[in-house]
Amino acid sequence: xxxxxxxxxxxxxxxxxxxxxxxxxxxxxxxxxxxxxxxxxxxxxxxxxxxxxxxxxxxxxxxxxxxxxxxxxxxxxxxxxxxxxxxxxxxxxxxxxxxxxxxxxxxxxxxxxxxxxxxxxxxxxxxxxxxxxxxxxxxxxxxxxxxxxxxxxxxxxxxxxxxxxxxxxxxxxxxxxxxxxxxxxxxxxxxxxxxxxxxxxxxxxxxxxxxxxxxxxxxxxxxxxxxxxxxxxxxxxxxxxxxxxxxxxxxxxxxxxxxxxxxxxxxxxxxxxxx
Amino acid sequence: xxxxxxxxxxxxxxxxxxxxxxxxxxxxxxxxxxxxxxxxxxxxxxxxxxxxxxxxxxxxxxxxxxxxxxxxxxxxxxxxxxxxxxxxxxxxxxxxxxxxxxxxxxxxxxxxxxxxxxxxxxxxxxxxxxxxxxxxxxxxxxxxxxxxxxxxxxxxxxxxxxxxxxxxxxxxxxxxxxxxxxxxxxxxxxxxxxxxxxxxxxxxxxxxxxxxxxxxxxxxxxxxxxxxxxxxxxxxxxxxxxxxxxxxxxxxxxxxxxxxxxxxxxxxxxxxxxxxxxxxxxxxxxxxxxxxxxxxxxxxxxxxxxxxxxxxx
Lengths: 275, 313
Fold this sequence. Notes:
The complex is a heterodimer.
Chain A: H1 2-17, H2 20-39, H3 50-74, H4 79-84, H5 86-91, H6 97-130, H7 135-165, H8 169-198, H9 205-213, H10 216-225, H11 229-235, H12 238-243, H13 248-272
Helix pairs in contact in A: 1-6, 2-3, 2-6, 3-6, 3-7, 3-8, 3-10, 3-11, 6-7, 6-13, 7-8, 7-10, 7-13, 10-13
Chain B: H1 2-8, E1 24-33, E2 36-46, E3 51-55, H2 62-70, E4 77-82, H3 90-95, E5 99-102, H4 114-124, H5 132-138, H6 154-165, E6 172-175, H7 184-199, E7 203-208, E8 220-225, E9 228-233, H8 235-241, E10 247-251, E11 264-265, E12 271-274, H9 280-285, E13 292-297, H10 301-310
Parallel strand pairs in B: 3-7, 3-8, 5-6, 6-7
Antiparallel strand pairs in B: 1-2, 1-4, 8-9, 10-12, 10-13, 11-12
């Protein structure tokens, strides 16, 4: 346990020192504040639920941004340290290889969590002080931030896996961008094309649910946008949320599985890897 | 042999502990990388209190041998015991607490300070962090402890690397080309520290691609060539094996009754003779008293090294 904690703390400190955490926090806060104040315009003069609108627009932003940031943070985790010679040194210490993977993963998740919670939290707090916010919407906002961190940890796990997979940092970076493209853009486009072409003949509701769970960004989208009736109304997903068999627990379970599986695969690969 | 050993090895007073277990035992170790044979059937035993120089060209298998001892890579065949455990096994993780390692090219995290870096590694080894200040002083980084590693010079980074390897009084030090790129003064400090470690009974293995640099610093030299161990012994023994004889060179005064047959013209009007190591003192004693500029010329270590690399010995 101790080596895991030490490595995680070192990763977090590295992130704070080289301004990575600061840069991402500023980026997320700036975008969140922009969306919060520009995006609440359509709510009109009543401004009853600016926060609910913000949850919808922020989670759409998160789907693009957080996976990219998470992959950029983690693709270098193993291959970069091997390159710099510090991995050989680390493994000469009394610890096991899986502890290195776990420690790095936790340290990166902590870095990203700090950025997300501060960046989005700032926007949430500002909206809460300027307008009336009901408890349900506030809850949806907190849930959205937590789900964003969970989505980040999915892609940190995938990035760590990519990092153990290849010998070259450039290749790892390229694969990371490819992973982002597939999960954030191509998969949904493909799914949409499939549904349009199929016209509901062979793609049944259970199959569609399974296909949505196979992409962590879709699981995230359903989780945040259907969590509260306020939010799903704005997102235009009220019907889907009610009719879907995908309950929040099953969506969270899917995201957790998307975190654990790449991480276990990374450990298995790394245990056999030459350093 | 003794004469040669005494003359060349600064640490000829070997500090072996005959009763203690060997620190490292490699038997019949081979390691392939695909079709490349990085290490080929190597047997090697290292004892406590011994300082061993591992010499070879780049790519001769030095780093691979060290990584095998650390369990970073597994041997294709053969068996390894390091501090009583098989590297890479579960028991070895605990044994690694007593191993110090300095990799060949290591770039430590540039955003942490020297003291923070050392504290991180000390905690990993479960060593008290308070002891680090002494260690930083010992490697001569006291003035730079709170500066970021990114601002360090090559020599300072190497000092920090050595400090990290010394954490927790290791029984085995594995140093991969530790003195490459260091200035002579730092190299001197470096060997001073290694001497102290060895006196405490640690086994020190250091690799180098220059044999000459190790002169007077090591008890034993292991020469590697293309993955094979081609020589193993004191520098004196290696000289004997290489059958490279020392020369006596001197300036002779004219008209003295001494039999100069066998002597040859050397450079600068000097004359020289090759002679057996065992005959050296006798020959010197019998020289007429008025000879001048007497020199004993030993084959240089580079000559010796070249002879082993060619496979003459």
